[in-house]
TrEMBL record, chain A:
Region Disordered: start-end pairs: 103-129
Bias (Basic and acidic residues): 119-129
Entry-linked Gene3D superfamilies: Folate-binding superfamily
Pfam family membership, one: SoxD
GO molecular function, one term: sarcosine oxidase activity
Coiled coil start-end: none
NCBIfam families with a match to the protein in the record: soxD
Biological processes per GO annotation: tetrahydrofolate metabolic process
Name by which UniProt lists this protein: Sarcosine oxidase subunit delta
Superkingdom assignment: Bacteria
From TrEMBL, chain B:
Domain of life according to the entry: Bacteria
Keywords in alphabetical order: Cytoplasm, FAD, Flavoprotein, FMN, Nucleotide-binding, Oxidoreductase
Catalytic activity: sarcosine + (6S)-5,6,7,8-tetrahydrofolate + O2 = (6R)-5,10-methylene-5,6,7,8-tetrahydrofolate + glycine + H2O2; sarcosine + O2 + H2O = formaldehyde + glycine + H2O2
PROSITE patterns in UniProt: RHODANESE_3
Record's protein name: Sarcosine oxidase subunit beta
Annotated ranges, domain Rhodanese: 35-79
Entry-linked Pfam families: DAO
Places the protein is found: Cytoplasm
Leading EC class: oxidoreductase
Gene Ontology biological process terms, A to Z: tetrahydrofolate metabolic process
One of the record's GO cellular component terms: cytoplasm
Amino acid sequence: MFHIFCPYCQEYREEEEFHPSGQAHIERPAEPASVSDEAWGDYLFLRDNPRGIHHEMWVHRLGCRKFFNITRDTASYEILETYRMGEQPSITAASAEVRREQGVQTADGGWQTVGARPENSRLNEETPS
Amino acid sequence: MQRYSGFSLVKHALSHHENWQRHWRNPTPKKRYDVIIVGGGGHGLATAYYLAKEFGVTNVAVVEKGWLGGGNTARNTTIVRSNYLWDEAAQLYNHSLDLWKGLSQDLNYNVMFSQRGVLNLAHTLQDMRDVQRRVNANRLNGIDSEVVTPEQIKEIEPALDTSKRARYPIMGASWQKSAGVARHDAVAWGFARGADALGVDLLQNTEVTGFKIRDGQIHGVHTNRGDIEAQTVGCVAAGNSGVLAKMAGIKLPLESHPLQALVSEPLKPILNTVTMSNHVHGYVSQSDKGDLVIGAGIDGYLGYGQRGSYPTIEHTLQAIVEMFPMFSRVRMNRQWGGIVDTCPDACPILSKTQVKGLYFNCGWGTGGFKATPGSGHVFAASLAKGEMHPIAAPFSIDRFHTGALIDEHGAAGVAH
């Protein structure tokens, strides 16, 4: 089960309070009437679906009911960071190597990197393993 | 290939069953094939089998990164039915159901296809309307669907709680008598054995690492065992289709999700049929071995990990206990996850791509097992002729741009 840090509640909560809502950072075309069928179809249906680092929207359905973003590895299921709507991820597929340096090793030998962003670094100190 | 028969059973009994032939060879890859199939699951193996058998293309390789039938073919809940709402989908799945009926004889391999029927329950007035609409559509397409009342359901499946006491009382159901279950592994093994006997090379532990594309035409694949050339490549990689498409520079409208299933300890025969409920959201059947085979919805997030999360298991079992209160103390034996490639309209993609000679057969999402022979047959026809088979044509990837979607979400509903 995921243990997700809600960037609005500033708390770790269990997965069941949340609901995944698909790929993050998809922009609706500014003028839908003027885009081509291809562009509109791509906007509606095409998704990155990577095996690896993925930025996705979640909603804290049974909590603050706000949408926020998670950067997660879709192969290991490791949550790398959570951040508010309108913000940009600090970890991307390109910077995947960086996360090892920013994370801390947990008791069971894995890497805890939820608090990888500098302002969340205090979270590393109270790492659940 | 040694044929299986009562006679061969007796003959091999004399040598203590120690001299049975291997199911398939383990060949080294040739430099060049006429057709390469990427993905050695049920659909890929069926494609190779029908290519060789019906369309005379025997110089075929099936490239599989793991072992044959080790992905979703080994992980599904083995339900076979064809009661889909829209004409295009009904034709595809019914074509498959027709092939299922003679499959054991055709393959000379017992796939244990058992037409024990499928109930799709309705718990609300809207459910009932949907059931009636779907049954009417089915009958127009020649599918043996009918609407049944709670009393009839009680007769078909006595273990089911059809009382008014239930939290979601059952108002009726659709009933497809010709639907049923099959032995999933045997399907992969049967197709593999049949294809191998016809000269198809089954290359296991061979992972595709890239495509050779020149001037918009496919020329082969790069693998961890060297390059293999072919002018026609069919990708049938289920959950990993998106990863393959990316190698070819193609984007697909797919999302890969974990779908979980579980089986209980073996019980004496208790279930007669397959029971599915969209509303309570779960489905259950009993295998010939006696296990209850249980499944429900996908985990909502993207994942390639072939495992799911615990809340989903809990929801699944809540649904099963709601339908069958007597199962509340049955212990579960095993639980697992497979990666399903879901399409926005819950229908598969069988399509050419912008790369000439490169075809995709993917997006079967939660319900691909039932289509294994039909999908293989129409995809093989398309690969052999270079033109999409009429049954496959509506499932082109273009539909996400033209808007001609085949929206089976409401009809298919629950994952299966």
